[in-house]
Design goal:
Strand order of the largest sheet: 1-2-3-4
Shape: elongated
Strand content: 5-15%
Order of helices and strands: HHHHHEEEEEE
Largest sheet: 4 strands, antiparallel
Distance between the termini: 118 Å
Radius of gyration: 31 Å
Number of helices: 5
Number of strands: 6
Structural class: alpha+beta
Length: 236
């Protein structure tokens, strides 16, 4: 027969053992959730993905995301892109976190181009507080980046838009992308004999700047413009 005292002892032991199990469970599971193996501030539990047996490797470089400081291989660290480590952002809402997305704002331009890896920090061309890779109009000119990017423009065309009636070669462009120097055999571009032509895309002008006497000018350095667009050189 079990008396009241025995019952009390048994219940106490069960309760104590139960507490030990709960405590041990928290002790084991808690720290594992907060592990950040690559030190990028993003918990492994987020970077590993849904299958711990096959950790996510977003850029397929053989290094799982939880050990990769740049999981999408866009040249910028996950830590810089993630913003909130415990709740990563998805700017374009395409289901891919920005730090794993090569085109975070879905404008058709790779983040590595919009970030400009030659600069320190994240490039913000218009100074509006939104870095270019998260800005749909990076220069704030009222035209979406996706509409400006990779726009095809014929440089060797006359003032009325007609294409040159003969070959144009060896283009050289300044650092702004506005002034383009090239050698041409076309006779309908500027109405003169000069065949070293300077096109200013910003001003919408085109002028002859010299005469190259040989029609066999195929070399890249046949006509060149300086980075600041102020000087030109050409073979005569």
């Amino acid at each position: 027969m079990t008396n009241a005292t025995d019952v009390g002892v048994q219940e106490t032991v069960k309760s104590t053992w139960g507490c030990l199990l709960v405590f041990m469970g928290l002790f084991v599971l808690g720290p594992a959730y907060a592990v950040d193996s690559d030190g990028d501030t993003i918990p492994d539990s987020i970077e590993i993905g849904n299958d711990p047996e096959s950790p996510r490797d977003s850029d397929l470089d053989g290094q799982p995301d939880y050990l990769d400081l740049d999981s999408d291989n866009d040249g910028t660290t996950d830590q810089l892109e993630v913003r909130d480590p415990n709740s990563p952002t998805d700017f374009d809402q395409d289901g891919i976190y920005d730090y794993l997305d090569r085109d975070s704002d879905n404008d058709g331009i790779d983040d590595s181009i919009e970030m400009d890896l030659s600069t320190v920090g994240l490039l913000d061309s218009d100074g509006d507080g939104a870095p270019n890779y998260l800005d749909l109009d990076s220069d704030n000119d009222g035209v979406l980046d996706k509409d400006e990017w990779q726009k095809i423009e014929r440089i060797s065309s006359s003032g009325n838009g007609s294409p040159g009636n003969d070959w144009s070669r060896t283009p050289s462009i300044d650092d702004t992308g506005n002034r383009v120097l090239f050698h041409t055999w076309a006779e309908n571009l500027i109405g003169s004999d000069e065949n070293i032509v300077l096109r200013d895309r910003h001003e919408g002008t085109m002028e002859g700047v010299g005469l190259q006497g040989h029609h066999d000018c195929y070399y890249e350095d046949c006509a060149e413009i300086s980075g600041n667009g102020e000087f030109v050189t050409f073979v005569s």
